[in-house]
């Protein structure tokens, strides 16, 4: 480094400083960055004579570009050093026996460094560790299944698996074509269903990934149904985390997917009087499924249960809201009345086909409710309240009679 510095000083003294003195410039005024940029200017334009004036605008541009290059290289060095430090830290934690994944990508490492706290970093690492563990287990099961199949083939070689596999492939291919034809028909004639993709800022990276996974499940359920919806992904920005996760899941099929993806809001695409925002926080309960309306589902997971976010958004846009009548048909046991996106899709598809709430609400997880009720819950509450009041009334009459008897006995004793 010292030899390089001395070489640079010699070049400056021999090339720039004599030229600067001829033009009346002082040596002390020119700092190192400016002398470097001046030397670059002089090297680029050797044709200018001593009598010509220096192009100060060009000089400033060269100076600015040099400074930007220096800042970019410094930021790159800093980023590389932080990533290297994070990798070393993870290696230490792995040796200490913590839940750290064996293989971690550059993107995951960057997400790890961007975590706001140490607890968030630990949670993210645990999530990656469990994900890797599940993948390993799935791979192990596949290998065992393959080995079992080979053993069965060796034991019973008479079975002609080629015909069987070709039939399965032919059936799957023809079924896919039939499903795609239905969805294509729904895009022209079917009822629309909107997924609101404007909640990326309200969720962490992990929650966005879970949301996209649920939407992928919803799309596959819709595609296999007898009368599918025409799905719209509204407020889906380009290069957003939602879109990146969709491309990861669908890969080349994302461009061929039979859905409508747009960065526009649903109020710009559809008339407001036809839109109904489905949210668990709505005071209005949904009574029947309306085939002429367009239902909106907020693309947000229920991990942290942020109450009122979707309701506030719907009110801000001046839209009608509705909640599923869970309390009306189910004796709720515990937990919030929030469902996953694929469960919502199954409920809406069943309502669309049958209109039967009991059949539709079978997709609600059984851990969340005790049982179905024959009468609506509010009617049961009324009858229970009536029974309690009657009981209390009878009890009060009994107390009065006992008090009257005891009082009469006291009077006779006196």
Short description:
With 414 residues, this protein is α/β, with parallel strands linked by helices. It has 14 helices and eight strands.
Number of strands: 8
CATH topology of the domain at 189-367: Alpha/beta knot
Radius of gyration: 36 Å
**SSE order in H/E notation?**
HHHHHHEHEHEHEEHEHEHHEH
How would you classify the helix and strand content by structural class? alpha/beta
Let me know the average pLDDT: 76
* Amount of helix: 55-70%
The end-to-end distance, rounded to whole angstroms, is 119 Å
Biggest sheet strand order reads 3-2-1-5-4-6
User: Could you list the spans in which at least 5 consecutive residues all have pLDDT below 50?
Assistant: 26-52
How can the largest sheet be summarized?
6 strands, parallel
Q: Overall 3D geometry?
A: extended
Number of helices: 14
In CATH, the architecture of the domain at 189-367 is 3-Layer(aba) Sandwich
Instruction: State the CATH class of the domain at 189-367.
Output: Alpha Beta
Name the beta content range: 5-15%
Protein name: tRNA methyltransferase 10 homolog C
Domain SAM-dependent MTase TRM10-type: 179-371
EC number: 2.1.1.218, 2.1.1.221
GO cellular component, one term: mitochondrion
